[in-house]
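Structure first, sequence second, as always.
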């Protein structure tokens, strides 16, 4: 694979942390401002920047965990420059960065961008870890074999991961095509509003990669997504599930994707930023 570099941007760090130290960081924030489709709004490419901007205004001390997880080391990489050639090349670029993060024994936390970026991270984990589960929190199964002329569409990302022979558990699902039903596994799919936490955890292997599409949340609190679906999950439901998974399994990496910011509406951006920080706090046991 060809060497690549991404542009040097102005300092723009998650949580506004100064004096970042990559060598001593436990978690690495990796912004991927990628969107191959514009939906009907501006596109999820603006999501990472909105999350990072909002994160600069949240408190670092977490009331629930009673700690400031930023003190354990969080480093923010510069944004990836997506390929102009093909979605597949963008996935390869993502994989290259995740390879380096894992090589350095750090926990990658990727900010999207559309959901297709998850494939690059999972491909990297597949090379490093022989056995792990992917926990997908999402309104949609994303199991179409191909969509809009590409197998690397966000509607196909979980099918590509499934093709890697990786165990997937899907939670919060409430929209599915007839084609996708044939690719689901009954014991590993949990339709909203049911969130049987212990049963979900029982489907997961010891190591877990968490991918969280923000449309898993109800649009009343998360309207800023490209494809919102009514009847989603609530804030505390999501937090409780992730917290329990982190307690009983080892979350080895995560991504938060599909924030499609709405100009003038900052609450969803703050929710995404706080949720990302909560995930980090739970992972830092």
């Amino acid at each position: 694979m060809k060497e690549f570099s991404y542009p040097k941007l102005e300092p723009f760090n998650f949580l506004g942390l100064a004096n970042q130290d990559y060598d001593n960081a436990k978690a690495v924030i990796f912004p991927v401002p990628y969107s191959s489709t514009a939906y009907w709004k501006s596109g999820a490419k603006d999501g990472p920047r909105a999350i990072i901007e909002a994160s600069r205004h949240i408190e670092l001390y977490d009331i629930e965990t009673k700690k400031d997880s930023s003190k354990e080391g969080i480093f923010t990489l510069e944004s990836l420059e997506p390929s102009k050639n093909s979605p597949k090349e963008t996935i390869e670029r993502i994989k290259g960065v995740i390879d380096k993060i894992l090589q350095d024994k750090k926990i990658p936390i990727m900010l999207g961008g559309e959901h297709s970026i998850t494939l690059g991270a999972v491909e990297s984990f597949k090379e490093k870890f022989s056995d792990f589960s992917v926990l997908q929190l999402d309104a949609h199964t994303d199991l179409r074999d191909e969509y809009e002329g590409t197998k690397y569409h966000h509607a196909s990302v979980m099918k590509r991961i499934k093709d890697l022979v990786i165990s997937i558990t899907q939670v919060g699902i409430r929209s599915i095509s007839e084609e996708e039903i044939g690719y689901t596994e009954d014991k590993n799919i949990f339709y909203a509003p049911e969130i049987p936490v212990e049963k979900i955890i029982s489907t997961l292997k010891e190591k877990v990669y968490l991918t969280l599409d923000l449309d898993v949340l109800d649009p009343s609190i998360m309207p800023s997504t490209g494809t919102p679906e009514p009847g989603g999950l609530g804030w505390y439901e999501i937090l409780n599930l992730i917290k329990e998974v982190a307690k009983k399994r080892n979350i080895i990496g995560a991504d938060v994707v599909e924030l499609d910011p709405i100009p003038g509406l900052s609450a969803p951006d703050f929710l995404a930023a706080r949720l990302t920080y909560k995930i980090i706090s739970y992972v830092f046991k």
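Margin note: The first strand starts at residue 27 and ends at 32.
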